[in-house]
Structure of DUF4351 domain-containing protein:
Amino acid sequence: MEVFIPFHARDIIQKMLADQFPQAWATWLHLSDVEIVGTVSADVSTLAFGNKILDHVFATRSNGLIDLEFQSQAEPDLYRFLSYGVALALAHRKPVHTVVLYLTPVPSRPTTLDLGSLQFTVTNVHIANKPGQAVWQRLSTLDANAWTQTDILDLAFFPFMEHTVPLKDRAIAAAELSRKISGFEGRLAGAAIVALTSSFVDKNVLKYLIGVIRLNNLIEELEREAIARGLQKGIERGLAEGIEQGLARGLAQGLEQGLQQGLQQGLQQGREQAILFEREHVVRSLLKADIQSGLPENLGHKLLNLDDMRWDELLRKLPSITSQQELNDFLK
């Protein structure tokens, strides 16, 4: 029987790895004085390459963007990355910092493209140059509850670091170690190891890796946990913003209707606003990157009108939705 990791599953895992550890990426990539505050849509239209989904795009505290691109082979020049950077800059009107992450050993690559008045620069990160033996010695002695987010990234990319042991053996060792890490981060680390190495190991090794971390059940668990985290984030944001807005409106009306009625109305509007923020955040977190842009402005209100049964049905369906039209049809 053929063994493979569906693109859908890899997409979910890589998206979670980016969304859950945004600031850890800056530390791990040695981007000094950069504070990542979140992710943005990676769906852009470029002049040279048409519609393209970039690997990951982070937003920074300084109002800039970081385009993180994964590479497994040498890029002949920087024109493709230039196209992505220009597209992002035009779409968001913000400065763009491009980081190219090479998973496998490649010759030293250029970092600058001189086009006269136009100067384009990237930061190249070669995973194969990281000291794998030292990293493994440190990670393998960590207690289950002592792992940081940068440790998780080290483990996820350990199979590609400099080491005398073959990649397949490093992938197996890393997957087995991930099972000793407690909580959501451990499960995500295991899934990331399989997703990243699936194109570099034979089917027997891949089958073993899938068995070690119980990938099929794990993806469902990760989706549920991401939903729960999205709900919590939405609730926190909604209660802070929604109740504040709702109380302000309700209290204004309360001058005419009476303070008690105004408070009740304000709290009700606040609760509705909290649900709206919560549901919209969850939907945007779980949708594939290529259909996140261009969502209707009234998406939150459409989601608010769903009853609990219909909302639960949408949560189960979200990871498999492949187009905006499919989402719109569901919300009709």
Summary: Strands lie at 36-39, 43-46, 50-53, 56-60, 65-71, 96-102, 112-115, 118-126. The chain has 13 helices and eight strands. The two ends are 40 Å apart (CA to CA). Residues 7-219 form one domain.
